[in-house]
Amino acid sequence: MRQDARMLAALFERSMGLDDAWEVSGTWFEEVEGGPDELHVRVARRRGHAIPCPECGVPCGVHDARERTWRHLDIWQFRTYVHCAVPRTDCPEHGVRTVLMPWEVRPNSHFTALFEAQVLAACMRGSTVKAVAEALGEDDRRLWDMLGRAVAQARGSADYSDVRRVGIDETSRSKGHTYISTMLDLDGRRCVAVTDGNDRGSVGRMCGQLEAHGGDRAAITEVTRDMSGSFSSGVSEEMPQATQTIDRFHVMQLFSRATDRVRCRERRESDEKREALKRTKYVWLKREESLTERQREVRERLAPNRSHLKTARACQMTEAMRDVYDCETAAEAEPMLDRLLSWMTHSNVPEMRRVAKTVRENKEGILSYFGSRLTNAYLEGANSLIQSIKRAARGFRNVEYLATAIFPGLGGLSFDALACDPT
Prior knowledge:
By secondary structure, this protein is α/β, with parallel strands linked by helices.
């Protein structure tokens, strides 16, 4: 070989970790019209070396060999391909078996282990599969297939037997009312299940995924969720022993959205109210201690005892709910919550009466917060990451693809064993 070819061969042998049974027998460049040149490397089996059986490891003779090609990490900005006649062993005990090559993660892969690691690392940093495929000059369908196998293999070795406290939430996966549901381990800070839909059956499907990896739905002690009736029914059916806690964020979101609806409705009632409520949205939505000096002055000027605005009254109810959450125990919070619900129910603000009905139906779960102090804060952060993935990919029509994109970053999976465990 030429000197530059010998240098490339030595570089490749070191990067691929080839043992004494294998050697680089040739390297060459190929020009590609309209694209970057390609570097091709041929690896061959050295004569006199027996091939161990993939099943038992006993040295065997070679039955035959089949030509295969793998995409490798680019070398010197050249797209690099590996060629090899892959032998099949003739084992007396196990028969004909295809040998797993030193640079393969799993049998019949189109890529070397280093190339797969590069793609996986890019996706874990937040790059979309399409962007990675365009950067590497690969078909995104082949990368999706590779990622799906890698994630399935990593999830196969995941152990969920220690999961005791989980959070359940929903998030959209594409335009329209198309949702996925996620289950996260609140102690391990990892996503353990993703399923299509947000109906009551979605809880059972996620419990099935949990148990497929060593978990036990009967061992779950606490579940945090929003006020969805389907999640409430699903958890009661699938995990009846678990304490259900209504997430504080969703309760306060319910109050804030109702307050803003009151403001929007009241602005349309008269020109006087429209002028009074002009540019006051965040005067009513922000916590009192977070108001600017101007916003505080506006809130005081439009207080119920001065303006008789229903928006101001709804704001007072929202602040009262925040006071409930400042309590230390459920015994302290319950009478305060009961007084607030009575006030809201007998008020002349229909939006807040509807909120009172919802809160009353979920009162037990709301009061459970004071015992566990569990929230869905981690789930909401995870949902933000999922939405970032969705926006970058312009939505997902296939929930399996979305799950494949979610687990590398949020699944807490270990991909270390992929290079040495081909199963």
